[in-house]
Amino acid sequence: MSYWTEKHFKVFETPGLEARMAALAEKVRPKFEELGEQYSAYFSGKTGEEFHPHVAKHMRRTVNPPNDSWVAFAPNKRGYKAVPHFQIGLWESHVFIILAVIYEANGKAGMAERLLDSELIHNLPGDMVLSGDHMKPEASSVDELGEEGLKKLLERLRDVKKGEFVIGRHLEREEADRLSKEQFDQLAEKTFDELLPIYNTMLGNNNQ
């Protein structure tokens, strides 16, 4: 039995803010609540720091319905946007399993410098993708970006107030529909295991 199915992705085809929010609450949020508990425990065990789940509620929206939704994991109980954080989420086209530093984050320049000095990203598997904007579904593979593209992305994170850095895996809608819960968990854990050294490097936790 598939863990993610067409009904989850079709939520983002629901017209209107109220109707889409209701569909999200009914069909998608229970998954995020479940994953929130599961992966908060996973990150707490891996890092030795207590992680907390943050399920997107989209409370600030008044007109436009959300085009994506997620659960974020961070060691901050009150919020996640000011720190590097992990996410599992959905766009209409795919599931994303990512590590993100968004524009609200503190200390971005130092994080970018530490990554610029590291070879970790170059050594990632070819199906890992990167983006400089968490509000857009598109992302490029490490190979597509190349060394110069990656350098530009990290320099933007360092130098531009709105600079962001998103890295992880995208699981296309049709592909996700074929995975059981166990198979999805295997992929998510593999992805997070590969992203944790990057997270630790960002924070300067090189002893982990």
Range of strand content: 15-25%
The number of strands is 7
Summed over residues and divided by their number, the pLDDT gives a mean of 94
Structure classification: alpha+beta
Rg for CA atoms:
17 Å
SSE string, helix = H, strand = E?
Answer: HHEEEEHEEHEHH
> Counting H and I runs of at least 4 residues, what is the number of helices?
6
Quick one: overall form?
Answer: globular
Unreliable residue runs:
none
**What percent of residues adopt helix (DSSP H or I)?**
40-55%
Major sheet, described briefly? 7 strands, antiparallel
* First-residue to last-residue Cα separation: 37 Å
Structure write-up:
The longest helix has 31 residues, at 17-47. The protein has six helices and seven strands. The model has no long low-confidence stretch (mean pLDDT 94). The chain is an alpha+beta fold. It has a seven-stranded antiparallel sheet with strand order 1-2-3-4-7-5-6. 36% of the residues are buried. The chain has helices spanning 6-10, 17-47, 108-116, 142-159, 173-176, 181-203; strands at residues 52-55, 68-74, 85-91, 94-101, 129-131, 140-141, 165-172. 43% of the residues lie in helices and 19% in strands.
In summary, what is this structure?
This protein is of the alpha+beta class and 208 residues long.
Main features:
seven-stranded antiparallel beta sheet, alpha+beta
SSE order and pairing:
Blueprint: H1 6-10, H2 17-47, E1 52-55, E2 68-74, E3 85-91, E4 94-101, H3 108-116, E5 129-131, E6 140-141, H4 142-159, E7 165-172, H5 173-176, H6 181-203
Antiparallel strand pairs: 1-2, 2-3, 3-4, 4-7, 5-6, 5-7
